[in-house]
Amino acid sequence: MVFTQRLGSDFFESVQQGVIERLRQAGLDAVVTADPEDVAYLTGFFHHPGERPVVVWLEASGRCVLLLPVLEREHAESQSAHAELVDYPEFPGVVSPWDVLAERVRPATVSSSSATARLRVGHSTTISYERLVAATRAFSFAALEPTDVILRSRFIKQPGEVELHREAARITDRMLDAGVRLVRDAVVAGGQMPSEAELAAHVGRIGTGIMYDEHADVVVGSFLAGGLVYSGANSSKPHGLPSSYRLRPGDTFMLSLGCAVGGRFVEGERTFVMGEPTASQIRYHDAIYEAQKRGRETIRAGLECREANELCLDVIRDAGLGEYILHRQGHGIGLGMHEPPWLEAGDATVLEAGMVVSNEPGIYVTGHAGYRISDSMLVTAEGAEPLTSFPRRLDDCLIEL
Residue 310: which region, alpha, beta or left (left: phi > 0; alpha: psi -120 to 50)? Predict the structure, then answer.
């Protein structure tokens, strides 16, 4: 059976109703967002974001309007965008796109000159200043205020989304395996080792190839498959970019990979050693293994993000390696690879069943290497399920020379 990446109309009905309920609880008449991830979440329309606004207007009454440039209309129709479509000719336009939307959604019973009768309309907090100014001018019948009603709805994944995350995890595991095989095959062949860039290109091809071979309706969003591949001192930079450096005996190297299925992300990261590990490499790898294991054991519904972070990173501190910590335990994952909530000391958000978060403690020793293990975790009432399953222990992450 072919796996389909597209979610059905029932999903978008449910999503919109969930946001509408939050609107009503907040006393808002509508919400407006130009965030590409929000647009995809509410309507199923994925697009390449640019200067031309693509905007969703969702009313507490149930009406959902999608504003888009006319050049995107056929694209939205081909994706069965779950909204009333309104298009404008071009940007910046003789008439502002925001004015086009305002004319379509302006209530007949609300006067544009009556401040007391204006609607309460929330806007996403990611909107740019330029667009917020344009929207404020266009929606003279509304009082705009920031809101997180859409973001909060995105926290909890519905069953259809969970299946997309699971499939993304399956592919990510296969990408990790493909990266390791490429290195091990090079060792057996006795030729030159792959470079960071070659490894990154290889695993990206594997991930996208699996999707196009095994899936229908592949959703192309901001990213399909790939990631960061770095080794030696380059890996001591948490987001170091792949280079032409070729792996060498004794190197620590990291495969920080992921993919998006139906626009839903998963990341899986493992740290490997080329040849017999030194005492320091064993110490560093064991520390992050134990910290990540603590995260797998403690993440659960009802736990605050800051508490989860503390429990996890304390393992590294207790091992005497706290000076090498450069980042939090993890973050939320969904239509964005990085999105709230944040598993960090400053986030008191309570974890809930249905959230997907990363569990990725790491240490970074300048001039030597970085060490990080990451799984995408589905939070449950009883605990959390790691969606990615590639082996994590150092014994399983050694490249024999």
Answer: alpha
